[in-house]
Write a structure and sequence with these properties.
By secondary structure, this protein is α+β, with helices and mostly antiparallel strands. The protein has two domains: about 5-100, Aminopeptidase (3-Layer(aba) Sandwich); about 130-280, 3-Layer(aba) Sandwich (Aminopeptidase), CATH 3.40.630.30. About 30% of the residues lie in helices and about 35% in strands. Strands 1, 2, 3, 4, 5, 6, 7, 10, 11, 12, 13, 14, 15 and 16 form a 14-stranded mixed beta sheet that branches. Strands 8-9 form a two-stranded antiparallel ribbon. Strand 11 and strand 12 (about 220-230) form a beta hairpin. It is globular. It starts with a strand and ends with a strand.
Length: about 290
C-alpha cells in the first residue's frame, strides 16, 4: 500500500513536532501554527501516512477568495523517496481546484530542491525572489532618541506609496508576511492589512520614505519588516525607529531581489548587521500556478 492522505488531527501534534525538530535546526515555525491550522475550517490541513505512520503534512489556505496558498509542506527526512511530497502536492492541487481556486501560490527555499522539483513538475512557475534576513534587537534599543520628523502613516498612505514603489516592483507586486506573499493587485488593502506599524518621513506633506512592520504569519515572537522604501538616509532613520519600537524582539524581513537588482532596504540591513542564510542572495522563491 502506498502513501495515504487524511486530515491532520490534534493527536498528530507529537509526530509533527518530532518531524519539525529535524528541520531548520529545530526552528521550524509549524508547531507554533499547528492549532491555527486545525482551527481554520476554510482551508485544509493534511497528513501523509505510510503503513499507519505519519510521514508528512501540509496545509492549504486562502490569500484572498479564489487564490489558494500552500504552506508547511514537510516530510520526515527518514521517509524521503516514499512519495509523500508528491502525494500531498497532488491532493492539495485537486482540493484547491474543487474549492474553486483560480490560482495557487506558495513559497520555498532554494535548498529545498526536492520540493522545487515536484512543484515545477506540476506546472508551478517562479514569480518572485527574496532574501531572508533577521536580527535580534537589543532591549536598550528603546533608549534611542525619538526622531521628531518621523510621522505615522495611514493604511491609505501605505497603499498609495507602495503602489508606485521600487520595492513592490522588485517584489513582483507581492507584499511579504513571513513566508506568505500576498499579490498586492488582487486586494491592496487586504495585502497590507497586517502592517500595523507604519512610519514615514514627509517632505512638504508628501511621504518620501515609508517603513512598515507587522506580525509574520505563523512566526514565533517576532516582528516582520514587510515593506520599506525611500532614500538610504531616510531608510536608516526609519530603521533606527523600527528598532526602538521592537526592542527586545526579533525582526525578520523578506527583501525583494530581482536578478542583479535589490531593494534599497537590503544594503541598509547589511550595514545594521542583519543575519542572513545565503549571503543576502535571493534564496526564497515564490511560485504560482494558474488554474483558469
Amino acid at each position: 500500500m502506498g502513501v495515504e492522505i487524511r486530515a491532520l488531527t490534534a493527536e498528530d501534534r507529537p509526530r509533527v513536532v518530532e518531524i519539525t525538530s529535524q528541520i531548520w535546526g529545530g526552528e521550524d515555525w509549524v508547531p507554533d501554527a499547528f492549532d491555527a491550522w486545525l482551527a481554520d475550517d476554510e482551508g485544509e490541513a493534511i497528513a501523509a501516512v505510510l503503513d499507519g505512520r505519519l510521514i508528512g503534512f501540509a496545509r492549504r489556505s486562502w490569500i484572498v477568495p479564489g487564490h489558494a496558498w500552500f504552506e508547511g509542506i514537510r516530510s520526515d527526512p527518514a521517509a524521503r523517496g516514499c512519495g509523500a511530497g508528491r502525494a500531498m502536492t497532488e491532493h492539495l492541487i485537486d482540493g484547491a481546484r474543487c474549492a474553486g481556486a483560480d490560482a495557487i501560490h506558495l513559497a520555498t527555499h532554494v535548498d529545498n530542491e526536492a520540493s522545487i522539483h515536484i512543484i515545477e513538475s506540476y506546472g508551478f512557475r517562479r514569480v518572485a525572489t527574496f532574501a531572508y534576513v533577521a536580527k535580534e534587537i537589543a532591549a536598550d534599543a528603546e533608549d534611542a532618541p525619538i526622531d521628531p520628523e518621523i510621522d505615522s502613516a495611514s493604511a491609505d498612505d501605505v497603499v498609495r506609496f507602495a503602489d508606485t514603489s521600487r520595492f513592490l516592483s522588485l517584489a513582483r507586486r507581492r507584499i511579504p508576511r513571513g513566508w506568505w506573499f500576498a499579490p498586492f493587485d488582487l486586494d491592496p488593502r487586504a495585502a497590507t492589512a497586517h502592517l500595523t506599524t507604519r512610519i514615514g518621513i514627509r517632505d512638504r506633506g508628501e511621504l518620501v520614505a515609508l517603513l512598515c512592520l507587522g506580525e509574520p504569519a505563523g512566526a514565533r515572537e517576532s516582528v516582520g519588516l514587510a515593506f520599506a522604501d525611500g532614500s538610504p538616509k531616510n531608510l536608516r532613520r526609519l530603521l533606527v525607529e523600527a528598532h526602538r519600537r521592537s526592542a527586545g524582539r526579533r525582526i525578520e524581513a523578506m527583501v525583494p531581489v530581482d536578478g542583479d537588482q535589490e531593494a534599497a532596504l537590503l544594503p541598509i540591513l547589511k550595514e545594521f548587521e542583519y543575519a542572513t542564510w545565503d549571503d543576502y542572495a535571493a534564496a526564497v522563491f515564490v511560485y504560482q500556478m494558474d488554474l483558469r
